[in-house]
Amino acid sequence: MIRSLPMENASAQNADYGSAASLNSTVNEAALRTFRGASEDGKLRVDETNHLVIDLQLRHWFDFHLSAVGELSIADIRNVMTERIMRLPLPARDEALAVLSAYLGYLDALAAYDETTALKNQMSDASSRMLTRLEWQQRLRREWLQPDVVTAFFTADELIDNYTLQKLALLRNGANATELKQLDESLPEVVQVMREQSQSVLTLNQEMAQMQAQNVSAEDQYAWQVREYGEEAAQRLAQVKQRQEEWQQRLKDYRHYKQSPELQRLAPQDRDDLLQTYRDAHFTSLEQKRIGAALALLKEE
After folding, report:
1. Are 38 and 239 a contacting pair, CB within 8 Å?
2. Are 51 and 263 in contact (CB under 8 A)?
3. Does residue 129 have a pLDDT over 50?
4. 88 with 119: CB under 8 angstroms?
5. Rounded to an integer, what distance in angstroms lies between the CA atom of residue 201 and that of residue 227?
6. DSSP string of the chain?
7. pTM of this prediction?
8. d(Cα 223, Cα 163) in Å, to the nearest integer?
9. How far apart are CA 158 and CA 282, in angstroms?
10. Rounded percentage of the chain residues whose pLDDT exceeds 90
11. For 53-88, what is each residue's pLDDT tens digit?
């Protein structure tokens, strides 16, 4: 059964078709595309009976908008998405609102796990932590999302996850090269392609780390990315890097504020109140769930 989060614009569910402008979002979709610096990914579609098309393109459409979290507030992003959804005919409109609400609930619960349960498991080895998280993630998807949504959104992901778990089990049991090769060959062709793409990402990260260690200029790094992956991909990589750097800087600023002598001299309750005020001003509610784990991983400078 789909569990829904409270809708910020609950009254909009009964609005007439085409009345999305009445939601008065502070950020329109054109501004979002401009701000993101990329064309929209994914598709929001209905079929011939006016039901929502639930497929991987819908998840891509959700993720495209949600990737702006940290640059825009989650409320603004959700309003942009809701405005688009409100243009759909019924019953697709209500179906899309329900899937969006459940998907946001799933992501919020996943962030909460990473903030709390994952920290409790730091003493276990890396493979055990991965096993625990993957198994819990799959259960969480089925708790929040309808079976058809889980299938449409996560079939390929879970094939790769299950492959990873099987490979870890084989390695723990001392599997030889032949057994590992048989496991690789048992994967569907589409998943093998995805694995190869994942390996390409790892190669990219290794190359970028090597260039940074060699003090290669940002311009030369970008030129290499254009040669290897094309102009559009290089632009997207630059945007991701910029968002990561901005996130890291906000974490460092928060840590500096938290450790400041002026704050340390205050009473505990006053200090906690000021820290919460700072977090509310500089981090979204989803980001605040990540702060503890992110600070633990942040390198001292």
Report:
1. yes
2. no
3. yes
4. no
5. 15
6. ----PPPTTGGGGGPPTT-GGGG--SS-HHHHHHHHTSPPPS---B-TTS-B--SHHHHHHHHHHHTTBTTB-HHHHHHHHHHHHTTSPTTHHHHHHHHHHHHHHHHHHHHHHHHTHHHHTTTS-HHHHHHHHHHHHHHHHHHHS-HHHHHHHHHHHHHHHHHHHHHHHHHHTT--HHHHHHHHHTS-HHHHHHHHHHHHHHHHHHHHHHHHHTT--HHHHHHHHHHHH-HHHHHHHHHHHHHHHHHHHHHHHHHHHHT-HHHHTS-HHHHHHHHHHHHHHHS-HHHHHHHHHHHHHSPP-
7. 0.55
8. 35
9. 34
10. 27
11. 999 999 999 998 888 776 677 888 899 999 999 999
What residues does each domain of the chain span? 10-115, 122-187, 195-229, 232-301
User: Distances from the Cα of 33 to the Cαs of 68, 71, 212, 230, 242, in angstroms?
Assistant: 10, 12, 30, 20, 16
Angle between the 218-229 and 231-258 helix axes, to the nearest 10 degrees? 140
Contact criterion met (CB below 8 Å) for 227 and 256: no
Give the tokens for residue 261: 């002598």
